[in-house]
Amino acid sequence: MNLLAELPPLTWALVACAVAVGWALSWLWRWYLKRSARKALVAAITSVALDHLIDVLVPDGMGSSYHVDFLLLTTRGVVVIDLRDVGGNVFGGDQMNEWTVMDGAHRFTFVNPQGALYDRVAAVKALAGEMPVEGRIVFTRRARFPKGLPKWTLMLDSLRTEFPPADPSTLASVTGRFGESWEHIKRSTSPSSLAQPRPVAVT
Prior knowledge:
alpha/beta
């Protein structure tokens, strides 16, 4: 005798509800973990800045614009951050057209991001006046560079070392030197719809 077939409709309804609730809770938990990780990542990057912009469009001077992940106002000026969140061993170099990621049996490549970074830095420089502008490609902790880091590339944990947060005694000086230029950058940019970290292009 098939006992399952003899279950009353109410029991089936309760089972279906339990499955649906379990699936919903699992989805909410994954969403919460992803959101928390994103907030922690943003906090780690912006902790070096006096002020910052996230996911903005910077005009390129020719009627179009560049998406920029982070613009950070630091004691050295503005830093353009191109964030990359990939897992595995990354093999890249200044003269390589493509960088390769190897994660176990998985392998993919993406276009050398240095050229795009140079374009973004140039666009921000056009708005910054005399304020210095630098750019960095920042990889999260999931990536490893067994052959060494290419130029202008940083691991997330090294960001605070290269751009130490401002000492309270220097805040007034930094604001006085860069405040006007930074406000002009803020007025000249607009929100971007591209969420970060964006995936690399798989080839």
